Amino acid sequence: MKIPRLRLWLAAGVAAVAGLTGTLTTTAAQAAAGCRVDYTVNNSWPGGFGANVTITNLGDPVNGWRLTWSFTAGQTITQLWNGTVSQSGSQVTVTDAGYNASIGTGGNTSFGFNGSWNGTNPVPASFALNGTTCTGGVTTSPSSSPSASPSSSPSVSPSASPSPSPSVSPSASPSNLPCDIYAAGGTPCVAAHSTTRALFRSYSGNLYQVRRSSDNTTRNIGVLTTGGTANAATQDSFCAGTSCVITVLYDQSGHGNDLWYQGSSVVPGSPQSKPATATTESLTVGGNKAYSLYINPSNSYWRDGHTTGVPTGTAPEGMYMVTSGTHVNSGCCFDYGNSETTRKADAAGAMDAINFSKQCWFGGCSGSGPWVQADLEWGLFPGGSQSWNPNQRAFTSKFVTAMLKNNGTTRFALKGANAQSGGMTTLWDGALPNGYNPMKKQGAIILGSGGDCCKPDGGANLSAGTFYEGAMVAGYPSDATENAVQANITAAGYR
């Protein structure tokens, strides 16, 4: 089915936009307001559709937002992420989710939703941000009563309002990092993890934490510069003369989806579960030293993110990770992605995670891997069925990019690439396996093991793998967005 791309307003073939225009009144204190809204239907099926909405603030910074609109053909929102929705008849109100309440001047935020429709699915005619209708420019309104003198209240000439700008290309800026690129494509990161570098150009926080054995104290490892690579010297100094483990990978997205090792006080685990050694593998990224998260059997990391932005149920999502084709095995299951909050194998479709391993779950595989597959629970899928996918191929390079995206109802795609050069190879882009439509995602995040692993009364991870960086996003990323992410990864200079 051809996926419609609905737009509010068209100019020279660019994305639909809406903003605010008005008059300028000269007063002692003034507040500028303005917005643009991009509304895109990115998936459609009989009786249902998925959409992404991006709000760009053109006026003064806002702290707390409310977007309203009306559906004209009986559409109903059934699930929404990165916001809170209420709907009364045709009237829809979406408010911020707390973590995305602030939008600076020129900044944007996005949310997505699944909806139902019957007959037609027209685009909403207009939007209002915090009660002000959006049509494309900026209004400066007085914070006190207007001046009585007509000459002190000149109206803005038509040229004073900025003309609507085109929607941002996923590769709009060479300084954009993976999560900037995903956000520009309308699929913002809801979790972002790395031991090697920042995944947002504005990120200046900590990447991970190490704990040394000599005195059990911990140290956070941050970045050298804002948007830069890891400060490995901090780890080297702290861990000198003793051994260190990685206790937690911090979430860079602002959602708080930190990954603690299973077996910690934060995520209790089985007696066999323990954190990964922090110093097993060093590398360079952009010429700067860094360390990997080097997973061996008994190591794994987890987070229950179902209330902090991780897609659940049939909500679409995408994800990627940079891993290695030289440190893998056939044990279950080196995964990164969406998993069960119960840490049990609950149902087909309860997981949606990248698997990178030599494991041939259903048999009949060609070669010995390692392969990029989808762990959808109750099996690792090389394509759209239990049969071997002839488009599969092994990725044996030192650094590998693996990607998975799933619209939650009908379609998923698998891709892989050398993380040092070249573009993505599409391994599968088609129907979900029988029994996995619709998906039943629970919204936890797993790294290093399968979903039914490592809880206090369970066993330990059996897999081996390497994790350098990865992110999960809300919405179904476009191929252009994923290509731009891969271009950034190759430019990062993994060596």
Report on the structure:
This protein is mainly beta. It folds into two domains: 131 residues, Immunoglobulin-like (Sandwich), CATH 2.60.40; 315 residues, Sandwich (Jelly Rolls), CATH 2.60.120. Helix content is 6%, strand content 35%. It is built from three helices and 33 strands. The strands form seven sheets. Strands 14, 15, 16, 17, 18, 22, 24, 25, 26, 27 and 31 form an eleven-stranded antiparallel beta sheet that branches. A six-stranded antiparallel beta sheet has the order 13-33-23-28-29-30, with helices on one face. β19 and β20 form a beta hairpin. α1 packs antiparallel against α3. The N terminus is likely disordered. GO terms for molecular function: alpha-L-arabinofuranosidase activity; polysaccharide binding.
Structural class: mainly beta
What is the second-level CATH architecture of the largest domain? Sandwich
What's the story with the biggest beta sheet? 11 strands, antiparallel
* Radius of gyration (Å): 24 Å
Which stretches are low in confidence, meaning pLDDT under 50 for 5 or more residues running? 1-30, 141-174
Number of strands: 33
Arithmetic mean of pLDDT: 86
Q: What's the shape?
A: globular
Q: Beta-strand level of the residues, as a percent range? A: 35-45%
- From the N-terminal CA to the C-terminal CA, the straight-line distance is 42 Å
Q: What's the domain count? A: 2
Treating each run of at least 4 consecutive H or I residues as one helix, how many helices?
A: 3
